[in-house]
Write a structure and sequence with these properties.
About 15% of the residues lie in helices and about 40% in strands. With about 190 residues, it is an alpha+beta fold. Helix 1 (about 5-20) runs antiparallel to helix 2. The strands form 3 sheets. Strands 1-2-9-4-7 form a 5-stranded antiparallel beta sheet, with helices on one face. It has a 4-stranded antiparallel beta sheet with strand order 3-8-5-6, with no helix packed on it.
Length: about 190
């Protein structure tokens, strides 16, 4: 019987990729098919990391190192996050259910830290196996679980987002506020 590709395989492959590549585009290009392969294994993430956290959305660190980290986010029905950036490259793959994603492009010159003009690009319905690629400066999106079940995503980032000052956008008002992701539920 063929052994399924698991998280430890993915981490080893991403360590190889990030050791061989320095260009973010190349890391993402090589990492995307690896994440897709991981998403083919519905049991790659333990059940305890597929539930909502004490504060609602579940956030679990699976692997952390200087060049990349892997975490799981569980979005309950109605959970979401308005337009925001990541300040790092990212690959986000849907493991269970689906997630609505709205993509935006900044039109301003970024001269001010309190205001921005965003252009709405479009809405995606990301389903199991779909991967969203985020590369600054085009890393602004909003996500929402519009279903009645939990959605489980695997996130791979070039930085740990916990405590990282990022930007949240209000497209209607043209304003920016800073925020940082909270601690993970498992560490």
């Amino acid at each position: 019987m063929k052994r399924l590709y698991g998280v430890s395989d993915f981490i080893a492959d991403m360590q190889r990729v990030t050791g061989e590549e320095s260009a973010l585009e190349a890391i993402m290009e090589r990492g995307k098919p690896l994440l897709r392969k991981l998403l083919e294994n519905p049991d790659c993430i333990p059940a305890e990391f597929k539930k909502r956290g004490a504060m609602g959305q579940g956030r679990y660190m699976i692997h952390r190192e200087q060049k990349f980290n892997v975490n799981v986010v569980v979005w309950g029905p109605g959970d979401g996050l308005g337009p925001h950036n990541h300040d790092t490259w990212g690959l986000i793959g849907v493991l269970e259910n689906e997630l609505q994603e709205k993509r935006f492009r900044r039109l301003d010159d970024r001269a001010t830290v309190t205001a921005a003009r965003l252009e709405f690009i479009g809405t995606l319905r990301n389903r199991v196996g779909d991967i969203s690629c985020l590369l600054p400066p085009d890393d602004v999106h909003a996500v929402l679980n519009t279903t009645d079940r939990n959605t489980v995503d695997i996130h791979v980032y070039g930085k740990d987002l916990t405590g990282l000052n990022r930007l949240k956008f209000d497209p209607d008002e043209g304003t920016i506020t800073t925020f940082a992701s909270p601690k993970y539920d498992n560490c």
